[in-house]
Design a protein that fits this description.
Elements lengths: L1 H12 L12 H20 L1 H5 L8 H26 L5 H9 L16 H22 L5 H29 L3 H20 L11 H6 L7 H18 L10 E2 L6 E2 L5 H11 L3 H14 L1 H21 L1
Antiparallel strand pairs: 1-2
Helix pairs in contact: 2-4, 4-7, 6-7, 6-8, 6-10
The structure holds Phenylacetyl coenzyme A (FAQ).
Protein name: 1,2-phenylacetyl-CoA epoxidase subunit A
GO molecular function, one term: phenylacetyl-CoA 1,2-epoxidase activity
EC number: 1.14.13.149
């Protein structure tokens, strides 16, 4: 067994992806199932805040685009659940753990979408933050996860641009629309920064995940990249970043920003955010209502298998 792990270590060192059938340490497998499973849950729960606006989108075009975006997120969830299954995870078990609060999903989806501008802000800021994190994951050491990320990133960058365009329409609209855009930035800016996780010194999983090359950059490095990318976009929209401490450091070329409210972050990931209860209840209901479909699919698959055996 030791030799097999030596091969694993060599592959990691030589930038050769680990594949489903390769030997891997149990802790590596568990870390991946945790991260990929939570990532999949984020995509699925992430459909809820935007889905809330499909019937209320301001135009038919906006409705069609939003519908397609929300469907894309469902697809991302399914690729990720499939990637977790290659590691031996069971999809039903992951779903039940989500509903029972034993598996997490991204903190960002526990905030409400109060206005149409919040939907634009999610497309622009939340998908924007997701891309920064996920571009790095295209080079993650586990092959099926890395490959799923390539396609997901292409779709997320389209989402980010449509969010920016929707935001631009509001920012260039009436004074009321511009104010609605600013309110959405005020409410979503800090939660978007929290998506990158705790600061490096308070991130228990980072050191090992970086050593295994699951994570290529630390939480703080990615957060900084997002701030540097996004502040110029806020300014281009004629809006303000809700951070009095934000300033460009001329020497480093990076934006320095204020302290994140870690108490709020910890409350949200502990299940005490504004919409945690509502999100989990929506997933529970969908899971229970979908039981007959899952049962029918199993019966159908068994029948197909019997027929295939008869032919063989
Ligand atoms: N929310 O030691 P670390 C999207 C947890 S996709 C909730 O730093 P790690 C697309 C963490 O799990 C968004 N929990 O952990 C979309 C751990 O708890 P555990 C999702 C968080 O794993 C757009 C504990 O805190 N993206 O949005 C959060 O090394 C629009 C300690 O943290 C991904 O999941 C958080 N923000 O680093 C969909 C990307 N941060 O498990 C619809 C993949 C940390 O020990 C609409 N994931 N925690 O109990 C990752 O890159 C990593 O898992 C991090 C966290 C960076 C999120």
């Amino acid at each position: 067994m030791e030799n097999n792990y030596q091969k694993f270590e060599q592959n990691i060192a030589n930038e050769i992806t680990i594949e489903a059938k390769d030997q891997m340490p149990d802790a590596y497998r568990k870390t991946l199932i945790r991260q990929i499973g939570q990532h999949g849950h984020s995509e699925i729960v992430g459909m809820l805040p935007e889905g809330n606006w499909i019937t209320r989108a301001p135009t038919l075009k906006r409705k069609a685009v939003l519908l397609a975006k929300v469907q894309d997120e469902a697809g991302h969830g399914l690729y990720l659940y499939s990637a977790a299954e290659t590691l031996g995870a069971d999809r039903d078990d992951m779903m039940e753990k989500l509903i029972d609060g034993k598996m997490k999903y991204s903190s960002i989806f526990n905030y409400p979408t109060l206005t149409w501008a919040d939907v634009a802000a999610i497309g622009w800021l939340v998908d924007g933050a997701a891309i920064v994190n996920q571009v790095a994951l295209c080079r993650t050491s586990y092959g099926p996860y890395a490959r799923a990320m390539v396609r997901i990133c292409k779709e997320e960058s389209f989402h980010q641009r449509q969010g920016f365009e929707a935001m631009m329409a509001l920012a260039n609209g009436t004074p009321e629309q511009k104010q609605m855009a600013q309110d959405a930035v005020n409410r979503y800016w800090w939660p978007a920064l929290m998506m990158f996780g705790p600061s490096d010194e308070h991130s228990p999983n980072s050191a090992q995940s970086m050593a295994w090359k699951i994570k290529r950059f630390s939480n703080d490095e990615l957060r900084q990249k997002f701030v540097d990318n996004t502040v110029p976009q806020v300014l281009q929209l004629g809006l303000e970043v809700p951070d009095p401490d934000l300033k460009l450091n001329e020497e480093t070329g990076h934006y320095e920003f204020g302290e994140i409210d870690w108490h709020e972050f910890n409350e949200v990931i502990a299940g005490r955010g504004p919409c945690n209860h509502e999100r989990i209840e929506a997933r529970r209901k969908a899971w229970e209502n979908g039981k007959w479909v899952r049962d029918a699919a199993v019966v159908y698959a068994k029948k197909q298998q019997l027929e295939a055996n008869k032919v063989a």
